[in-house]
From TrEMBL:
The gene is thiD. It comes from Novosphingobium rhizovicinum. Pathway: Cofactor biosynthesis; thiamine diphosphate biosynthesis. The keyword Transferase applies. It comes from the Bacteria. This is hydroxymethylpyrimidine kinase.
Length: 253
């Protein structure tokens, strides 16, 4: 295989979802279906299903850093996706490693699961500042953007972010890409009405990272990722009694 034919190497740094709908499991499925090579640094192990999270064990910062080092030192990396971090110490350990890299980073500031379970405390959210600064893109949903201080606070940080509108009410979903000093780019699409939307944020950020790792520009990467998420929502297998998983396996872009 020639260098041009090799898949982009994508490192997903996130928590494990035992039911397979979100987290590292959604990251691996997304990266693979989009033609990337998925590597992982697991930050936490969760016991969860479509009804909620029943247990969380956070991995030590040293072990998270060791996973990152092991991947980068041997395989190499073309882009990074960050999801659930589990603790402020882990967030800082991740930032320490990524600040030395020169590859695109997509940061999904995970705070609350689809079921409503809290996945980040105040200290962890405070540590997000370093990650937003080094990321090529941060992808907050409506409540996460509010917790980060809203559009005004994001503008003061001078960071590029995608304000996801899936949590906002209405028949049309509005996503806005805001890049400091540039006009916002907006995407509107009819809402796909389904309870099987577990892992949409994980999937979107991983898809964006995969395209960026391939050398695609940011706007096109977001467009490709949105198409992937919508296709996965349409293909949801209908598993579980709560917020069910999407159908990553059926997506062909």
């Amino acid at each position: 295989m020639t260098e041009a034919q090799r898949p982009p190497r994508i490192l997903a740094i996130a928590g494990s979802d035992s039911s397979g709908g979100a987290g590292i499991q959604a990251d691996i499925k997304t990266i693979t279906m989009m033609g990337g090579f998925a590597m992982t640094a697991i930050t936490a192990i969760t016991a969860q299903n479509t009804l909620g999270v029943t247990g969380v064990d956070v991995i030590s910062p040293e072990m998270v850093a060791a996973q990152i080092d092991a991947c980068i030192s041997d395989i190499g990396v073309d882009a990074v996706k960050i999801g659930m971090l589990g603790s402020a110490a882990v967030a800082h350990a991740v930032a320490d490693r990524l600040e030395a890299l020169s590859v695109p980073v997509v940061f999904d500031p995970v705070m609350i699961a689809s079921s409503g379970s809290v996945l980040a405390d105040k200290e962890t959210i405070a540590a997000f500042e370093r990650l937003m600064t080094l990321a090529a893109l941060t992808t907050p949903n409506v409540p996460e953007l509010a917790a980060l201080g809203g559009p005004e606070a994001m503008a003061l940080r001078n960071v590029t972010y995608l304000a996801k509108g899936g949590d906002a009410p209405g028949a049309v979903v509005l996503d806005r890409l805001l890049n400091a000093g540039q006009s916002p780019i907006e995407w509107r699409a009819p809402r796909i009405v389904t309870r099987h939307s577990h892992g949409t944020g994980c999937t979107l950020s991983s898809a964006i990272a995969t395209s960026l790792g391939r050398g695609v520009d940011l706007r096109s990467a977001v467009e490709q990722a949105r198409a992937f998420v919508r296709a996965a929502l349409e293909a949801a297998p209908g598993f579980g009694a709560g917020h069910g998983p999407m159908g990553h396996q059926a997506v062909r872009l």
